[in-house]
Amino acid sequence: MTDQIPNPRESEILEMVQQARSIAISGHVSPDGDCLGSMLALGLGLRSFHPQVHFLKVDLIPKFLDFLPGLSELQEPNTDETYDLFIALDSSSSDRLGKAKEVMHRGKKTLLIDHHKSCERYAMVNYVDPSASSTSELIYRILKGMEISITPEIATNIFTGMTTDTGRFMYESCSPETMRIAAELMESGIDRDDIMQRLYQSSSLSSLYLTAELIESTKLYMDNRVAITTVTQSQLAELGAVESDLEDKVTIFRDAEEVEVSCLIRETIRGDYKISMRSKAIVDVSGLCTELGGGGHRRAGGFSMRKEPEEITRIILERLGDEGISR
Questions:
Q1: pTM of this prediction?
Q2: Contacts of 257 (CB under 8 A, 6+ apart)
Q3: Angle at the Cα of 92 (from 88 to 95), degrees rounded to 5?
């Protein structure tokens, strides 16, 4: 790309928005709370003064996030459409944009807003801050810098993105500034109790049965310092579970006192495997996942592989051995 600007000010982003007659906003495939929350918050904010803002849907929406304000605005990407400005959110690699990657390449100008340490900075203008708790936190800063009113609908999306990407405000990326923003969002009129209940207290029975099966089948390695769980499509089908039921299942064993790293190896409908990793205090899983073609944060990362689970397990254990976790 040309004309790369590492971290523009909010005024520069506002100028890009004002000059554009049409804007497309996209997140990544397998959208999570931060992806959708940041997308919807920015889109609703820009819609307050810009009529031609389009929200692109690049994957199925997890059921536990179907309450987010603005979801009905999402539309399938039209790969023949050319937008004056394409904005990518929370997507550390352009490959994670799915069908929207083609739309990005047709865009006259491109902007990336992200907080991943492993971000590739693939847009013309890149607003990237790995110290932020979430992309939603960055969106809050941007909207405030643009002097756009934070409505309860926008605040609900930002709060959802922040709480999901910080593990309910538990991860080390959660700074004093993060908590100050969360307080301001609560003061703006959001229903915090309703948001938390929908996110964390609305599991389906099939999800709970899946949890029980995963606990039973998880294997421990390296003196119980590493927990690795594998789940197949046939297991999901047998229990009547869906992909979104796997949300946060990787954290089950991380919460055990002895465990430093937990991994979830899940089979996708394409037949390859998606691996999620979480660590507690020592291992930087972002570095490990980046080496294996993925990315993430110090305490949360992921990657994909077209290998058998046994081989994936061997690779993970070998890399963790290099990180200093004793076998």
A1: 0.89
A2: none
A3: 80
Dihedral angle over CA of 114, 115, 116, 117, nearest 10: 130
Place of tokens 């290998």: 307
Spatial CB neighbours of 112, under 8 Å, sequence gap ≥ 6 = 87, 88, 89, 91, 119, 121, 122, 123, 125, 126, 127, 128
Q: Quickly list H helices, 201-325.
A: 205-217, 233-239, 285-291, 309-322
Report how far residue 28's alpha carbon sits from residue 101's, in angstroms, rounded to the nearest whole number.
10
Q: How far is CA 156 from CA 33, 40, 184, 186, in A?
A: 11, 10, 11, 9
CA distance linking residue 315 with residue 33, whole number of Å: 29
Instruction: Give the tens place of pLDDT for each residue, 147-198.
Output: 999 999 999 999 999 999 999 998 888 999 999 999 999 999 999 999 999 9
pLDDT (0 to 100) of residue 7:
63
Work out whether the CA dihedral 229, 60, 28, 183 comes out positive or negative.
Answer: negative
Using one digit for the tens of pLDDT, what is the confidence trace for 47-71? 999 989 999 999 999 999 999 999 9
Cα–Cα distance list, 51 to 41, 107, 277 (Å): 15, 18, 40
Query: Which tokens belong to 119?
Result: 């971000």
Contact predicate 222/320, CB 8 Å: yes
| CA 194 and chain centroid, separation | 21
Residue 114 confidence (pLDDT) above 70: yes
